[in-house]
Amino acid sequence: MPEVTREQGSSSGLRSRKPRNVRLDKPKTASSRRSGTDTKRRRPRPSTIYKFLVMGSSAFTTPARAHLQMHPRDVFLPLRVTNNCPDPIWPAILTQSGTGPASTGFMLNPGDTQSQTVGGDWIGRVWGRTNCSFPNSGTGPASGSGGAACDTGDCGSFLQCPGAGQAPATLAEFTLSSDTYQTFYDISLVDGYNLPIGIISLLDESGNTTLQDIPPNLTNPVCIGTSSLLAPVGSTSDADFGSNSTFPLPLDQSVTPSFVQSWCPWPLQLDPPQKPGDGVYPYPDDNIQRPIFNPCLSACAKYNKDQYCCTGSHNTPATCSPSDYSTQAKKVCPDAYSYAYDDQTSTFIIPQGGGFEVVFCPAGRSTNILATFGDQLRQLAQTGHATRDIVALAQNVTYIREKNTAAALLSQPGASLLSVALLWVLVFLA
Question: Which of 72, 249, 314, 400 has its CA 20 to 30 A from that of 267?
Fold first, then answer.
């Protein structure tokens, strides 16, 4: 295998910093109760999530049950990983259960896609590593100095990941099958953020008419927490991400590139810029220019305390509240997990039987799918199919714009139900 090295001086910032000599602990195993990136967040099981989201519904039935003629472990589904970043990245894949892909780590140049297959019973995650340097052996760093081979997402300095990655890392998480014949997936910032990410559900490639009938703008979340890749407010440049003009994605229009530039709480920056001169620790409002590539640790990953990780005496929704990091992360990426008990506004549930594509650095705007189509997605989870009403609403551009605007307003600090109601009155009178 040819040597893979980092280059310096990229305008994107992905390769702008020198390697850090970081001593890594032994990678966590899939059976560990801690999270995949060396923190201890608690994560509900998919069956628990389903019961929580559709509590009080009638017994679940779905055409996916009839469609599934073989055990999920005997079905192979596509898992594609695409790099839309301006620099190389090194995606990593962790299999927690089921049949995983042949390769668990590889280099992707800008514009490249790696196609693999996983078993229909696969449970795992995908993340991107940045600023890596590996020797021909695949175990780094190439300098031989020890420490991490990658600045973010490193997994024991191995190209082929033997376990979980080092925080911070933006995660795409999948449970492809369950006892309710459903697939669960999400974008997670619970362990921190390093790269923008999007997930495309490959509905049309499933051969399952139940999946093919689902509008694609209900299933393809995007999270962009990097200001250089965030389009201006009002842009709809990625409204057809994995979709089309008939079914435009609801895009969050509430945050500006300047907000995204500084959304990460100051102490949680992986490498906070230093204040010039006197060396006094900078206040968040000092307006110090942050780097383009600015990975952010979650409060759980940084401090490893129960109140941030939803563990110990804080292991219930009533005793674990979102931290400042979680609140900020949710503003930037409304469809992403921001802390362990963020299920209702973070989990996507569709009938099982389809594959996925994970896209790094999808430029445009973050999506706001679950706030816009929450009722429709709960109905889809309950019944297992997209009704005519769901399909019609998914094509209603006016509904998408109005509902998305109301959801964005409600998410802002100090917003109230009254302000949202007034907005709807203005829309109605317009």
Answer: 314
